[in-house]
Amino acid sequence: MKFPTLLLLALASSVTLSAQVRLGFRAGLVNLNVPTSANTIPGGGSSPELLLDVDEAQFGIQGGLVVQIPIGDKWIIQPEVIFNSNRVDYEVEELRGSGTVTKVLSEKYQYLDIPLLLHYRIGALRLCGGPLGHIYVNSTSDLLAYENYDQRFEELTYGYQLGVGLDIWNIMLDVRYQGNFTRFGDHMYFNEERYDFDQRPERLIFSLGLLLGK
Length: 214
Known about the structure:
Elements: H1 3-13, E1 22-33, E2 39-41, E3 49-57, E4 60-71, E5 75-96, E6 99-122, E7 125-141, E8 149-151, E9 156-168, E10 171-180, E11 188-190, E12 193-194, E13 202-211
């Protein structure tokens, strides 16, 4: 059963608990960490041989909807639908016979992140964890200037989140670690071959949320 189906079932189950369910909004900053080693890309067509590495992962932004479904006094099921946008800068060395040319080229990615988290309350504190689905929305890339480059994103990929939160009245403060099950750059194809990096991306998320109602 795919992850979005599980999310829909969780939301459907909330109908019977409508008196307790709370809707909210969450927005935050995403710090992407991608420890990688450079890839050597053979030339193709009019494109030169390249040495490709991550230069810097910029802070991303995210925001979206949160549903809290209480289970007793301590536990909460919290599905979310979050729009997430990130930018990564790549250092590209063009290896030519007369020398090298170094450029910094950027790619931007937009996803819908769909966490399905289980929270445990300890007073005003919350501990949380659960699976995460990434649904690809859109991307732009300076690397498309090379004719032998192509982007092939999976429509749905998976990860997980672990975190801690603090509730102050209707305000939610959260810090979360996000891991992924796919390697960074698994969408990158040069000369019809995939050239992903050797590490899986990690994200640290700082967010502020607001719950509606009492």
